[in-house]
Amino acid sequence: MSDFPASGRRVATVAVVVADYDEAIAWYIEKLGFRLVEDVDLGHGKRWVTVEPGEGQGARLLLAKADGDRQAASIGNQTGGRVFLFLETDDFARDHALMTERGVTFREAPRREGYGTVAVFADLYGNLWDLIEPKR
Predict the structure, then answer these.
(1) 44 DSSP assignment
(2) CA-closest candidate to residue 123, choices 33, 10, 32
(3) Among 7, 55, 62, 96, which one is most buried in terms of CB atoms within 10 A?
């Protein structure tokens, strides 16, 4: 049993290590239709950059530029080759077609599972995502 309240908490932001702020911003906006929420200069080449898939729908992504060789080694492989993030949609066919048209690389054909319609795609660095329309 937890002492934490049942409400008032959520996963708000997930960091994604990127090679370049501007190319990552462009990819998420142009390919996935995300919107830029914040781009704040923190000095010394660092920025606080967040994007989100809709207006307050789901967690934001913090696009965190790699700092040093250790962080750079994780670009595109933040989860050791497993699917990292899950982009839910209310219309799989629409979003799959639009993303494909915009040059998103899907690693498989769409498939139906017990939990919904899904296909794996890679972001600009190779991190794996699921585009998923949950079964309702």
Answers:
(1) T
(2) 32
(3) 96
CA 24 to chain centroid? 11
Beta strands, E only, the chain: 13-18, 35-43, 46-52, 60-65, 83-88, 105-106, 111-113, 116-122, 128-134
Judged by DSSP in three states, 36 sits in strand
**pLDDT values of the chain reduced to their tens digit, one per residue, 136 residues:** 678 887 888 889 999 999 999 999 999 999 999 999 999 999 999 999 999 998 777 899 999 999 999 999 999 999 999 999 999 999 999 999 999 999 999 999 999 999 999 999 999 999 999 999 999 8
Residue length of the chain: 136
Angle at 38 between CA 30 and CA 63, to 5 degrees: 65
